[in-house]
Amino acid sequence: MSHPRTPRSRLMARDPRLGYLPERDRFLSSPGEPQYRFNVIGTGINGCEHIHVTMLEGRATIHGIYDPNPGSVQMAQKVFRRFAPDRQLRVYDSLEQACNDPAADGLIIATPNYTHLDVLRVAAGSGKHILLEKPMATTVEDAHAIVQIARDHPAVLQIGLQYRYKAMYHEAIHEALERKALGEIRLISIVEHRIPFLDKVGQWNKFSRYSGNTLVEKCCHYFDLLNLFAGARAARVFASGSQAVNFKDFERDGERSDILDNALVIVDYSNGVRAGFNLCMFAPGFYEEIAICGDEGRLKAYEEETFLPTHRPTTYMEVMRGEDKPSRIVEPCYPAEIEASGHKGATFYEHVAFIDNIAGRKTRAATVEEGFWSVVVAAAAQESIQSGLPVQIDEFLAARGIDAV
Ligand SMILES: NC(=O)c1ccc[n+]([C@@H]2O[C@H](COP(=O)([O-])OP(=O)(O)OC[C@H]3O[C@@H](n4cnc5c(N)ncnc54)[C@H](O)[C@@H]3O)[C@@H](O)[C@H]2O)c1
Predict the structure, then answer these.
(1) pTM check: above 0.85
(2) Residue nearest to atom 28 of ligand 1 (CA)
(3) Ligand 1 atom 5, closest CA
(4) 353, part of any domain
(5) pLDDT tens across the length of the chain (405 residues)
(6) Distance between CA 17 and CA 378 in Å, rounded?
(7) What is the three-class DSSP state of 220?
């Protein structure tokens, strides 16, 4: 007869007050041995979030890092020491060394967008498991090249579209796609209003040729979610947008910033679902909202950070199902320590999925094809903004020599 297993507490395992316990007296608070070792390529703000989250999750550890910027290396060492004060990170001198060290099982690529394809080519040569940050590339052509690389890759290649794991989207996915509480989905809308882009090493995110421009760089998350909820391929995209407020006076090495800061995007899907996206990047705080309308109900959810000392909920979700079925109103959230580790806990659960994926379990983590389609919709929206015309996706891909993926 098998005995039920006592659930171990990873939160307790990290509680410094239990540090006095000899290793052999730890049971509930035992962190267990990490099963995997990862190297992180690019340890800016996002690479450090991956280090933090890997150590917090506990089933893997960070073995080494590679970043040409000494400040980023120091920051990574500091984050790592918080979890493993007695261990040193291996710091590699080259990308090739970092990718091909047999001591590492997996690679996390968190370099600027315009480097992803080149870095991935080296990383894929190692045959290791890879978590590649979003957007997978700055152009549809490069994203397609990554789809080709992924076809021959013998291990996991997961894309960092981790907003799927924010508590409100996780719950919305459950309601709309698994429980089908809304019936057939017909109309979806997402709003993102936030402060301008943060400073980055080399300020790559102020220039479209390095970032892919705002709709690719940042909003690929939302196009991924629209694609996921629509459950079909985008057929036509129409958009309007501009650089109205942000970085109009920003120059670096004689080059002016050229990124969008506001846009409205309409996507028609091949199954008749319609979607809309509303972006404003000069808002005082962070606000994200999704509304999904089906033929049997409507879901609305939001997440908000105002920086004010108010005590109202920071997340909210309602599922309204009319007179025949129960409706519900909830505040989706994760444990506070996990939410504080970055992106309201989404990066943590992305890592849970990465490790589950490596272990051969089925997850909802973004595949390379899904990453590709998030870039396609974003890039088509940018083209529509430039031309003022709707973009037919099959023509858009054919013009780039790409058959549908
Ligand atoms: N999934 C998300 O929600 C999310 C959030 C933030 C950033 N990102 C993505 O993470 C990536 C990094 O963004 P960031 O905010 O950390 O930028 P950043 O500028 O803070 O850090 C990038 C780091 O990469 C290093 N770097 C540059 N070229 C490199 C190379 N060839 N090899 C190794 N290191 C190199 C830089 O020195 C820097 O330390 C981007 O692709 C970004 O879009 C994703």
Answers:
(1) yes
(2) 111
(3) 46
(4) no
(5) 567 777 677 777 877 788 899 989 988 888 788 999 999 999 999 999 999 999 999 999 999 999 999 999 999 999 999 999 889 999 999 999 999 999 999 999 999 999 999 999 999 999 999 999 999 999 999 999 999 999 999 999 999 999 999 999 999 999 999 999 999 999 999 999 999 999 999 999 999 999 999 999 999 999 999 999 999 999 999 999 999 999 999 999 999 999 999 999 999 999 999 999 999 999 999 999 999 999 999 999 999 999 899 888 899 999 999 999 999 999 999 999 999 999 999 999 999 999 999 999 999 999 999 999 999 999 999 999 999 999 999 999 999 999 867
(6) 48
(7) helix
Q: Name the residue with the closest Cα to ligand 1, atom 20.
A: 44
The residue to which tokens 């999904």 are assigned: 292
Q: How many domains does the chain have?
A: 2
CATH number of residue 172's parent domain? 3.30.360.10
In whole angstroms, give the CA distance from residue 160 to residue 187: 26
**φ, ψ at 67 (rounded to 5°):** -160, 130
Query: Which residues are paired to 276 by β-bridges?
Result: 189, 266
Q: Is the peptide bond before 16 cis (omega within 30 degrees of 0)?
A: no
Residue 41 CA, ligand 1 centroid: distance in Å: 9
Same domain, 96 and 177: no
Same domain, 319 and 181: yes
Domain of 78?
10-162
Q: Is 49 in the pocket of ligand 1 (CB under 6 A)?
A: no
Indicate if 253 and 304 belong to the same structural domain.
yes
In the block, tokens 């004060």 appear at 85
Residue 310 lies in a domain: yes
CATH number of domain containing 106: 3.40.50.720
Domain annotation covers residue 248? yes
**Do the strands 262-269 and 234-242 form a parallel or antiparallel pair, or are they unpaired?**
antiparallel
Beta carbon of 142 within 6 Å of any ligand 1 atom: no
Same domain, 264 and 332: yes
Q: Is the CB of 29 under 6 A from ligand 1?
A: no
List residues bridging with 64 in a β-sheet: 39, 90
Alpha helices in 281-361 (DSSP H): 336-339, 346-358
Q: Do 76 and 43 contact (CB within 8 A), yes or no?
A: yes
Ligand 1: does its nearest atom lie under 6 Å from the Cβ of 162? yes
| 184 & 135 share domain | no
Work out whether the CA dihedral 93, 368, 351, 341 comes out positive or negative: positive
